[in-house]
């Protein structure tokens, strides 16, 4: 038994043997600075890009792992990108822009999966969030199917959402931390209209009146910030608001009410430093979900298409 345990402890770290900080130090020294420069340029004219990248990163990692499979355009089969769950995911053009620049500097070297991870990290820092270091060395996946997208929706109960995150190796506390990304996100009326059409004692009356007016008879599915106070800052304001029933999405409000998650919400609401540190740690961990390293996968030349396999 001791031998088996020792072997397990020895082998486990090898899964991330090729995922390391500064992976492109010699193969493409300017890789991270190129990503940062282009993210900064986009952020200067569109601060909402942080929310876009956070969602893109999560929706990628939550399916086959962090392998950029969400970026693949549909051809012979329907890819993840065309799932209804990914309907409003954005940031694809920025990833393409970064990839084009990197290909000109270091052809077939930097993966699209790493670009997503690095770009999200840089955008979080630009939005007042934590500055953290992420290991790189991910490779791009060679499969993308709409049938594999099963991410819980905004109306899913906490229990189902917790089970989903647990299946990815994310603890309940880390899940609550990652939901903090909603501090810079938006929700379309179609995501929460069910909370407006009937009595909902879990929603602040003033917020509800505001949302009813916003959605009304609108036909273009307008959106509202999930953090009604500091919608472009990565801070703990989101947690403070959901504690006083000012969550826009049902799942967000339930995090502050469910006994399994309320304690974490309360903790983060009262301590921004703890949230910032926890958010960085959770993002780093999420970025390691089922990554491809070594000779697995490929380094795409174009993020929206698999390499020519002829």
UniProtKB/TrEMBL annotation:
Residue positions binding heme b: 182
UniProt site (Transition state stabilizer): 55
Enzyme class: oxidoreductase
Domain Plant heme peroxidase family profile: 18-307
Catalytic activity of the protein: 2 a phenolic donor + H2O2 = 2 a phenolic radical donor + 2 H2O
A molecular-function term among this protein's GO annotations: heme binding
Gene Ontology CC terms: extracellular region
Signal peptide: 1-17
PROSITE patterns (UniProt xref): PEROXIDASE_2, PEROXIDASE_4
UniProt keyword Protein biosynthesis, yes or no: no
EC numbers, comma separated: 1.11.1.7
Cofactor(s) the protein needs: Ca(2+); heme b
CDD domains in the record: secretory_peroxidase (cd00693)
Sequence positions that bind substrate: 152
GO biological process entries: hydrogen peroxide catabolic process; response to oxidative stress
Subcellular compartments: Secreted
Disulfide cross-links: 28-106, 61-66, 112-303, 189-215
InterPro entries per the UniProt record, alphabetical: Haem_peroxidase, Haem_peroxidase_sf, Peroxidase_pln, Peroxidases_AS, Secretory_peroxidase
Chain positions recorded as Ca(2+) 1 binding sites: 60, 63, 65, 67, 69, 80
Residues the entry annotates as binding Ca(2+) 2: 183, 227, 230, 235
SUPFAM superfamilies assigned to the protein according to its UniProt record, in alphabetical order: Heme-dependent peroxidases
Function recorded in the entry: Removal of H(2)O(2), oxidation of toxic reductants, biosynthesis and degradation of lignin, suberization, auxin catabolism, response to environmental stresses such as wounding, pathogen attack and oxidative stress. These functions might be dependent on each isozyme/isoform in each plant tissue.
Family as reported in the entry's similarity comment: Belongs to the peroxidase family. Classical plant (class III) peroxidase subfamily.
Full protein name: Peroxidase
Organism per entry: Clitoria ternatea
């Amino acid at each position: 038994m001791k031998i088996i345990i020792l072997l397990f402890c020895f082998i486990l770290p090898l899964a991330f043997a090729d995922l390391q900080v500064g992976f492109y130090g010699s193969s493409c020294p300017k890789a991270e600075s190129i990503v940062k420069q282009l993210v900064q340029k986009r952020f200067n004219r569109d601060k909402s890009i942080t929310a876009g990248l956070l969602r893109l990163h999560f929706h990628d990692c939550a399916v086959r792992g962090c392998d950029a499979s969400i970026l693949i355009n549909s051809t012979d089969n329907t890819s993840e990108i065309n799932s209804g769950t990914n309907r409003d995911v954005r940031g694809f053009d920025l990833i393409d822009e970064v990839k084009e620049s990197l290909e000109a500097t270091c052809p077939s070297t930097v993966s699209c999966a790493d670009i997503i991870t690095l770009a999200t990290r840089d955008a979080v820092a630009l939005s007042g969030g934590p500055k953290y270091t992420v290991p790189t060395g991910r490779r791009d996946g060679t499969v993308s199917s709409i049938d594999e997208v099963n991410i819980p929706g905004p109306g899913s109960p906490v229990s189902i959402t917790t089970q989903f995150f647990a299946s990815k190796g994310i603890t309940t506390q880390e899940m609550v931390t990652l939901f903090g990304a909603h501090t810079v996100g938006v929700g379309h009326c179609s995501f929460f209209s069910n909370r407006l059409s009937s009595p909902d004692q879990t929603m602040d009356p003033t917020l509800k009146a505001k949302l009813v007016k916003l959605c009304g008879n609108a036909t273009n599915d307008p959106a509202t910030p999930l953090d009604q106070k500091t919608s472009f800052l990565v801070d703990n304001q989101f947690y403070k608001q959901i504690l006083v029933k000012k969550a826009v999405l049902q799942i967000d409000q339930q995090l502050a009410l469910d006994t399994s998650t309320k304690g974490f919400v309360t903790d983060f609401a009262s301590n921004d430093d703890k949230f910032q540190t926890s958010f960085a740690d959770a993002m780093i961990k999420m970025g390691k979900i089922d990554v491809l390293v070594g000779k697995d996968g490929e380094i795409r030349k174009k993020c929206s298409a698999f390499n020519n396999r002829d």
